[in-house]
Amino acid sequence: GAGVSQSPRYKVAKRGQDVALRCDPISGHVSLFWYQQALGQGPEFLTYFQNEAQLDKSGLPSDRFFAERPEGSVSTLKIQRTQQEDSAVYLCASSLRQGGRGQFFGPGTRLTVL
Amino acid sequence: SQQGEEDPQALSIQEGENATMNCSYKTSINNLQWYRQNSGRGLVHLILIRSNEREKHSGRLRVTLDTSKKSSSLLITASRAADTASYFCATDAGGSEKLVFGKGTKLTVNP
Known about the structure:
The structure holds two protein chains of two kinds. Chain A is an all-beta fold. Chain A has strands at about 5, 10-15, 20-25, 30-35, 45-50, 55, 65-70, 75-80, 90-95, 105, 110-114.
């Protein structure tokens, strides 16, 4: 497809379990972003890549959260030892080049931690 | 923490009426964007207004920006049931790459 895709769309994890969320950006897009959206709230920034370089990870809430983009295309957001407060929709976005404008968002992965 | 707030938090109107949503932000910006989010779906980019612009139009959308008041408004004219969604403003918070979103306005357009 032509848009940003994310998988899985839904994930249920038991507390303490590790999860991995995948993002496939639009082909050729240099910048990739991860956001966390709690129920009834706006998305909040987690981390940003330009190609394979992670240039900003200031939004990651704890060292349990780790993101990578080893070849500058697909990205994975990993959450270790999940906790209930990690329950949220995780959105991935990509943009063609540096500049932040016109970010194209994927449908998100809804994570529920029991 | 989030950059600012939209108001109202929720808005319910009849089809054909106009809908106005407001957004306030806290820090200086280079541009402000509005996004729409339908239930269970990702965000769709609607319009971007630069800090040196005061008003911008796109189809049935009109956006204004007042940098002195750090506020913006989104007007949807002649609303349709399909406009039912949550609307978010987002800023670049002084030129950073990341977007900083408000809490959103949930718009319901009744047929």
